[in-house]
Structure prediction request, 528 residues.
Amino acid sequence: MAEYTDPLGVAEDMPELSDGDDDDIDDDERQWQWMEEEDSQPVTCLFCDRLLNSVAETLQHCTAEHQVNLVDVIRKHNLDDYGYIKMINFIRSKKCDASCLTGLPDVPLPWESEDFLRPVLQDDPLLQADPEELCGIEGPCSSTCHSSTAESQDALLHRAQAAEERARSSEEALARAMDDLHKLKLLAQDLVLNVDTSRCGNLGAVAELREDEDEAYFSSYGHYSIHEEMLKDKVRTESYRDFMYRNPEVFKDKVVLDVGCGTGILSMFAARAGAKKVIAVDQSEIIYQAMDIVRSNQLEDKITLIKGRIEDIKLPVEKVDIIISEWMGYFLLFESMFDSVLYARDLYLADGGSVYPDLCNISLAALGDTQKHRDHIAFWDDVYGFNMACMKKAVVPEALVEVVKAETLVSEPTVIQTLDCNSLCLSELEFASDFCLKITNTADCTAIVGYFDIFFDKGCSNKVMFSTGPQVTKTHWKQTVFLLEKPVSVQAGDELKGKITVRKNKKDPRSLLVTFDFGDRKQTYSLQ
Ligand code: SAH
Prediction:
């Protein structure tokens, strides 16, 4: 649960409202006094390191030195309190220069995300200013307004109502935060007491916990190393590139949505391939880098970046012609990001549009790698002279993500599932499939290996595919290894028959549970 902050500083900074009994100072004067008090703290300029004496002086300085009239920006985009605060925090966090405020689109503004409600500078006096008031001070009508008592009373009343409204919405937010905390506390108690939470009416709290898990998921994509690893995976990245560059007719003048754009690489490929417009969405902080990257490559006219979960944001267009996304996880479905692509497809894809990649295969093969088996299983029999054999039962159910040597394969591979990304529905991401592995070598089968292949096929004159299997160049997905606790002897020509079931782990829907059933033995593996 995100800590509740009071971004408007309402609790502390709200001007007292007159009760009408104080005759010494009239309302108008009181308001101006308050403004002056607010203004007395030093203010750091938005675009340089200068410290100014007041908010008003800062506005003047920005206009004179940086040619940015903040009041004009507030008016142009009709910014309310929240919009204004987000703009200030956006400028401070991005350290953008004044030019970032010129030529902004009407929607979406780059500070749309709620993240910009969080103050960048502590006690930032600019955040305590009221945009309406700023417009009032600077506005062309300010002198005449003050000459008319009736009008200024109206204005004050309006401000008081706005302040009351702010206080009310902050109170509501605080109540919601307290409620969330309470639910989390109950959930934590249930977990400690080992109670099945799904049966105790605490579903709201479970949902909150899921949100926290999602936060962890997205923050993992905020780290740069993961993007470096993906970009350096040439098999992956060059396949996307080749698909787009070699099939420009697919992209010419099309509106493209990139679900989970990361650094923006796929969006830039699409723009270079001839797309008319690309909308790139990512919930992770990496999108701020993507904004700079897109600008550095002069593609800002073509690519619109939006920070947010695709499920939460509203796209600036009704429909798109193409959806591109690199959503694949280990054993294809780990991470469950494809759920988000399906959401986007069902909501935004125009009739006749396409999702790429469009086809995916999941395959299995039998492995005979006694060395690997010893390293992971027999290892526990003697660990520095101690018997830790009880660990074997705990270790086996954890599927391994490792590179498998092609020479340790002892069967032909077999495809257990083909997914058509353009027609698939959510329920098909959980499935059961009978399989038959044709054994090619007489050996001890020590594990089953799983991997996937990806195809860019639909409507392409130059089709592109890549495999994450053990027979070809390795990728960052490596392979997924399901160790058998006890190896099985197999003869060349045998058929090893079984059934695989793939389902989401209800306790953590981004992870998978995979069960192998060979008739005489059954084992469930988790992929975390
Ligand atoms: N397209 C980039 C990054 C792929 S990694 C590339 O090919 O290099 C997947 C990205 O999708 C991550 O940055 C993650 O933050 C983002 N993502 C996952 N689910 C999302 C969702 N529901 N909404 C928005 N972004 C999402």
The pocket of S-adenosyl-L-homocysteine is lined by residues 218, 221, 230, 260-263, 265-266, 281-284, 286, 309-311, 326, 337, 340 (CB under 6 Å).
